[in-house]
Amino acid sequence: MKSRSILITAAAIALAVPAFAQQKTGMRMLKTFPIGSAGGWDYLTADSQNGKLYISHGTQVNSETTNEVVVIDVKTYKVIKRFKIVAGEEPTGLAIDRTTGRLFIGCGGNQLLVVMDTATGKNIASFPIGSCDGVAFERS
Length: 140
Known about the structure:
Layout: H1 2-21, E1 41-47, E2 52-57, E3 68-73, E4 78-84, E5 91-97, E6 102-107, E7 112-117, E8 123-128
């Protein structure tokens, strides 16, 4: 009886998996476009109010030392700016304060949080934070 229950459970799971895998999400790929070298891309964050996408570039997974934030115009799908991260190494997580135009960049290589002005790309400040990966911002 026990082996029969296990067999029925296994069959139910095997039949259910394809049903879940084939559900439509409503999402589809709109476009692909080049943004630079193949390696070292990590986190991204969107500024929907200004139509920009910010992507960290230059992580430990490649040999490049780009240490930059690439800014993409989401309407034209073009790279519009490349901001150098002066103090940080190996940028990972990104978070944006849309009110002040500040971008917070977690840098795992030298364990800093770098604050950047999204209009100018100026590195405003950096703070030691220890090991990091993702970054979040919440206005309180």
